[in-house]
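To the wet lab folks,

You asked to see what we're planning to order before we commit. Fair enough. Below is the target structure as tokens, and below that is the sequence we designed to fit it. If anything looks off to you, flag it before the synthesis order goes out.
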């Protein structure tokens, strides 16, 4: 079995949208919600974070052309970094996120490391033959009510929810994931991500993007219908 694996942790350079209230210091017209950059911008290394809220980068990896078989993002945790490094063999990347040591791998469904606690297998991740890919792994913390700007990716995006809930809206509808769930969106469609419910959303995520293209672009060609629960 051919296995490819790598790591890095991501979301998009989001500017979240907040519901307006009568006592907001600055009011905007109803059609233009108040927005502010998310700390970290999904580019600041997680070790340099300056806020508990935001999106931070764990790593990126140039992975090249991928085999045209169903591939998945495998997530395992370990008690120590030493234990994770010992289990990763030649494939895989160890990161520390949300107080845990993780081993990430992109591989076929039957792949597993020599040890570790399995957290999730997310996918399948749809890729295109002949394209060169880069894996970008991130972590994100959104307070309840935060919503990212409309954007799209040049490859699939995948999430695992550590806590809270999120709602993904695309022109095809909505997908809600809760703590312990995962979600995937294919390359291309415009989307928005919202933190829904009463608990802070914490997620680890992957964008597996076309290396020749930006990993994320904002777009105004589609307007979400605000179908996500509040």
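Sequence we intend to order:
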């Amino acid at each position: 079995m051919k296995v490819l694996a790598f790591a890095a942790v991501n979301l998009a350079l989001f500017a979240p949208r907040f519901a307006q209230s009568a006592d907001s210091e600055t009011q905007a017209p109803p059609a233009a919600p108040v927005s502010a950059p998310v700390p970290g911008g999904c580019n600041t290394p997680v070790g340099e974070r300056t806020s508990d809220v935001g999106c931070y980068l764990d790593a990126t990896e140039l992975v090249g052309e991928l085999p045209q078989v169903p591939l998945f993002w495998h997530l395992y945790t370990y008690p120590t970094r030493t234990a994770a490094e010992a289990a990763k063999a030649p494939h895989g990347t160890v990161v520390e996120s949300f107080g845990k040591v993780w081993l990430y791998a992109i591989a076929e469904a039957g792949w597993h490391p020599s040890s570790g606690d399995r957290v999730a297998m997310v996918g399948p991740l749809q890729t295109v033959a002949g394209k060169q890919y880069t894996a970008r792994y991130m972590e994100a913390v959104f307070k309840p009510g935060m919503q990212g700007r409309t954007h799209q990716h040049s490859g699939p995006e995948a999430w695992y929810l550590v806590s809270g809930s999120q709602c993904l809206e695309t022109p095809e509808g909505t997908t809600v994931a809760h703590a312990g769930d995962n979600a995937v969106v294919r390359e291309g469609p415009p989307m928005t991500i919202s933190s829904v419910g009463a608990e802070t959303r914490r997620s680890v995520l992957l964008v597996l993007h076309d290396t020749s293209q930006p990993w994320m672009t904002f777009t105004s060609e589609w307007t979400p219908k605000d179908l996500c629960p509040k």
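Structural context that might help your review: Residues 1-36 have pLDDT under 50 and may be disordered. Helices lie at 81-87.

Thanks,
Computational group
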